[in-house]
Design brief:
alpha+beta; four-stranded mixed sheet; 48% helix; 10% strand; globular
């Protein structure tokens, strides 16, 4: 039987839908963490799977600028400028984006690995590591050994993680997250739900997250 992480019943529950190749998801994670520095209560965060590009073939790895050109019809200069603007905003949050080196891939396998990490109490660490691997290090999040190495870096068993990557474990959990997002009518990420009753969509200013924490921490009258 797999070990389950312990959750404080009194903790603020935060559910986050995001994708590892989503630039605003990494920013949203950083902004949430900033807001949490001013929150006194306990917090339990669960990261849920969402795929921005589920149609990408499993063997495809494409630079984000080329992706904008091919998928959205932008000209190369316009696509490069859009990514430069995103990079500048990320830098204001202390995040180093190197989108000229990034490789957009189908993230389903990485999401399966995230569920494996959750069962071993290392999901947040893995999520942050996957964001850094994609946006800063230019690593391919579809490569088996790359994912296994990232898992090991955050304290997970490398061989067990590798077995997850090459197999099909946690596919049902990924699909359940995606279906739940559809029921909640989530059409874009990041998407945050606080205590199952208050939602924040997008990489909003830190003050928005602070307000959401305070509002969700008080029961509705």
């Amino acid at each position: 039987m797999r070990p389950q992480p312990q959750v404080d019943d009194e903790a603020m529950k935060i559910d986050v839908w995001s994708d590892f190749v989503c630039p605003f998801c990494y920013m949203g994670e950083a902004l949430l963490q900033q807001a949490l520095k001013t929150y006194d209560g306990e917090v339990s965060i669960t990261y849920h799977s969402y795929q921005l590009m589920p149609e990408l073939a499993e063997d495809t790895a494409i630079n984000p600028t080329d992706l904008l050109v091919q998928e959205r019809g932008m000209d190369p200069e316009q696509a490069a400028a859009a990514n430069a603007q995103v990079t500048q905003r990320a830098a204001t949050l202390g995040l180093q984006y190197r989108l000229d080196q990034a490789l957009a891939v189908n993230t389903r396998t990485a999401h399966r690995l995230s569920h494996f990490a959750a069962e071993h109490g290392r999901q947040h660490q893995l999520v942050r590591a996957l964001f850094d691997a994609y946006f800063t290090q230019g690593l391919n999040l579809r490569e088996t050994d790359t994912l296994a190495d990232i898992a090991a870096q955050v304290g997970l068993d490398r061989e067990r993680a590798r077995a997850v990557v090459v197999g099909h474990d946690y596919s049902q959990q990924v699909e359940a997250d995606i279906q739940q997002a559809q029921r909640l009518q989530i059409s874009g990420v990041p998407f945050f739900v606080f205590n199952e009753r208050l939602a924040v969509s997008g990489a909003q200013p830190v003050e928005v997250f602070q307000q959401a924490l305070q509002q969700a921490s008080h029961p509705a009258s």
